[in-house]
């Protein structure tokens, strides 16, 4: 058992340190000297360093050759080279620091994404900036100069690295949902990811030909917003990014403490016409964040998150599960995975409370299982409730990892296929003769152009969407690496359907706004500086008196 009765992690940590080895040339298969440890101890970093890069800085006495490293826990450190040594050695590590002083937060740089992997990125003037990767998007740290007090290099806050004409990127292990997030009539995208963020991709095109702005973090207010949608908005100091984080109680131990695995679904939970968010996290907890409108003309913000309860106890299940919400017989039904790894239904009672509706069942009366493994292998399921075959009954559309087994512990899909990969599964709903949840037919692998729709191994995401230039619903798939792929239902099939039936087109199915793209002027007016990824600027270094003169010429400019 990895944790004891007090909740302490008892698995012995693995430590590592840095070694140097000299080779005559890079093409040589043999080192000219044996490896030599250059850090003071053999247990320098818990769980090792996630990345390392050479760092050359210019100082009064010349160039200093150093190393910059990232720790598993998100820290960024520098090892200064030891001057006067006959062979390369380093001084004890020191944290890289921000140029911004704070009375509350440490100035030591902590990368916002797990497993930081730094790379020195020289500027035109020769100063060394940093590009830092990890379990998510690339981030840029601008070198601002040296500290007068410590001579240590100082850096700006992290900024996202941008890509021209880029494909949509939802972060590592994205969890997708498709809905009109900001109430303008167009269908947007909202995605959670491994780092625990929730991103909003605004659709400035049409539902038939969508065009999306870069994803921006969804934010919530620290206190309840009384006047939802007020033109004055909420003071920025009261807003924080929605960020799930496992912390010390991470399922796989403290090494994954900075992961969040946000799994959101968008729904109008309280029926006020404003989009809300239901979500699970890396600890399998269930939350609801009610929408507070788009006060001040910017993107929508959320009320503080509240825990969902059933029978006066917090709803709890496996990690990394996107819950589903649908309307069945006039009632809102919430579906998740329970502690026995079965799909479980609840009826919504009020904004924070659910009533147990029992396990979802197959047409033979047996519960719908999801896994044959235990531990951290469970969960990792995306659940969608939608009438996907247009027969008037809710169906289940699931994204299941390679090791999932639906609907029974052994012999289910996709496990029974020999673990070829994660898959999109379709479970056709059966009309219910009672007031209970619907029953479902056995799962079927969804095919695209006749080939099984496999979506990765560890996990994958699927969302039902009305986006597209043909009659929907269609599918959006989030790949493990972060890319988002659209699948038109005209090319989708399963064992029951050679091609999924096409619903009858509705005259009033789409709003006028969904058919008209935003103009360039409308987009420009919408993108205020604090939300515009194209106009990021670092702080004015002339205001940072601590900086030495050598680095002060670096001010201004945006991310690469």
Intertermini distance:
47 Å
How many separate helices? 2
Helix content: under 10%
CATH overall fold name of the largest domain = Tachylectin-2, Chain A
* Number of structural domains: 2
Radius of gyration: 26 Å
How are the strands ordered across the major sheet?
A: 28-27-33-32-31-30
Overview of this structure, please?
InterPro entries: Integrin_alpha_N (IPR028994). It is a single chain. The protein has 560 residues and is an all-beta fold. The protein folds into 2 domains: 15-157 and 538-552, no CATH class; 175-521, Tachylectin-2, Chain A. It is 2% helix and 32% strand. It has 2 helices and 47 strands. The strands form 14 sheets. Strands 28-27-33-32-31-30 form a 6-stranded mixed beta sheet, with no helix packed on it. It has a 5-stranded mixed beta sheet with strand order 29-34-35-38-41, with no helix packed on it.
List keywords for this structure.
mainly beta; Tachylectin-2, Chain A; 2 domains; six-stranded mixed β-sheet; five-stranded mixed β-sheet; 47 strands; 2 helices; 32% strand; globular; 560 residues
Secondary-structure map with pairings?
Elements (H helix, E strand, L loop, with lengths): L14 E2 L2 E2 L15 E2 L7 E2 L2 E11 L2 E10 L4 E5 L13 E2 L1 E2 L18 E6 L5 E6 L5 E3 L1 E4 L6 E3 L3 E2 L14 E5 L8 E5 L5 E4 L14 E2 L1 E3 L17 E3 L21 E5 L8 E5 L5 E4 L11 E2 L3 E2 L1 E2 L2 E2 L6 E2 L1 E5 L2 E7 L5 E6 L4 E7 L21 E6 L8 E6 L4 E2 L6 E2 L8 E5 L1 E2 L8 E2 L3 E2 L1 E2 L2 E2 L8 E5 L8 E5 L5 E4 L4 E2 L26 H7 L22 H4 L8
Parallel strand pairs: 9-14, 20-25, 27-33, 29-34
Antiparallel strand pairs: 1-4, 2-3, 5-6, 6-7, 7-8, 10-11, 11-12, 12-15, 13-14, 16-17, 17-18, 18-19, 20-21, 22-23, 23-24, 24-26, 27-28, 30-31, 31-32, 32-33, 34-35, 35-38, 36-37, 38-41, 39-40, 42-43, 42-47, 44-45, 45-46
């Amino acid at each position: 058992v990895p944790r004891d009765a007090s909740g302490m992690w008892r698995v012995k940590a693995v430590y590592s340190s840095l070694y140097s080895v000299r080779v005559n040339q890079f093409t040589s298969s043999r080192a000219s000297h044996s490896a030599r440890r250059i850090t003071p101890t053999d247990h320098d970093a818990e769980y090792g360093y996630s990345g390392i890069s050479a760092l050359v800085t210019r100082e009064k006495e010349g160039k200093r050759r150093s190393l910059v490293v990232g720790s598993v826990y998100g820290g960024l450190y520098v090892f200064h080279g030891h001057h006067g040594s006959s062979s390369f050695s380093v001084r004890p590590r020191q944290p890289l620091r921000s140029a911004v002083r704070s009375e509350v937060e440490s100035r030591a740089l902590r990368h916002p994404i797990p497993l930081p992997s730094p790379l020195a990125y020289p500027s035109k003037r020769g100063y060394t900036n940093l590009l830092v990767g990890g379990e998510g998007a690339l981030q840029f740290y601008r070198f601002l100069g040296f500290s007068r007090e410590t001579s240590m290099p100082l850096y700006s806050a992290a900024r996202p690295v941008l890509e021209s004409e880029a494909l949509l990127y939802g972060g590592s292990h994205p969890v997708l949902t498709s809905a009109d997030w900001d109430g303008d009539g167009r269908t947007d995208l909202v995605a959670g990811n491994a780092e625990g963020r929730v991103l909003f991709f605004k659709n400035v095109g049409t539902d038939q030909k969508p065009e999306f702005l870069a994803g921006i973090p969804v934010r919530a207010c620290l206190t309840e917003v009384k006047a939802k949608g007020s033109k004055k908005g909420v003071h920025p100091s009261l807003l924080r990014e929605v960020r799930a984080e496992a912390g010390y109680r991470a399922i796989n131990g403290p090494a994954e403490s900075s992961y969040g695995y946000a799994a959101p679904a968008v729904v109008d939970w309280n029926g006020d016409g404003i989009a809300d968010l239901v979500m699970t996290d890396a600890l399998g907890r269930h939350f609801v964040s009610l929408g507070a409108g788009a006060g001040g003309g910017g993107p929508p913000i959320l009320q503080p998150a509240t825990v969902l309860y059933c029978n006066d106890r917090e709803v709890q299940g496996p990690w990394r599960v996107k819950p589903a919400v649908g309307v069945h017989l006039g009632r809102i039904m919430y579906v998740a995975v329970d502690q026995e790894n079965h799909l479980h239904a609840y009826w919504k009672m009020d904004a924070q409370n659910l009533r147990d509706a029992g396990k979802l069942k197959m047409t033979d009366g047996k519960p719908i299982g999801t896994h044959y493994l235990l531990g951290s292998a469970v969960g990792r399921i995306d659940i969608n409730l939608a009438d996907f075959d247009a027969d008037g009954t809710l169906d289940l559309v699931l994204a299941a990892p390679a090791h999932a087994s639906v609907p029974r512990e052994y012999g289910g899909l996709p496990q029974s296929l020999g673990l070829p990969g994660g898959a999109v599964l379709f479970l056709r709903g059966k009309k219910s003769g009672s007031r209970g949840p619907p029953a479902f037919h056995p799962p079927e692998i969804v095919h695209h152009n006749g080939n099984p729709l496999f979506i990765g191994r560890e996990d994958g995401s699927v969302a039902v969407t009305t986006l597209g230039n043909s009659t929907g619903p269609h599918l959006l798939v989030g790949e493990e690496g972060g890319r988002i792929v659209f699948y038109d239902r005209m090319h989708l099939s399963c064992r029951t359907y050679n091609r999924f039936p096409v619903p009858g087109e509705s005259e009033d199915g789409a709003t006028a706004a969904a058919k008209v793209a935003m103009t360039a002027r409308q987009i420009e007016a919408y993108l205020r500086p604090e939300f515009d990824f194209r106009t990021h600027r670092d702080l004015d270094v002339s205001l940072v008196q601590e900086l030495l003169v050598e680095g002060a010429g670096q001010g201004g400019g945006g991310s690469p």
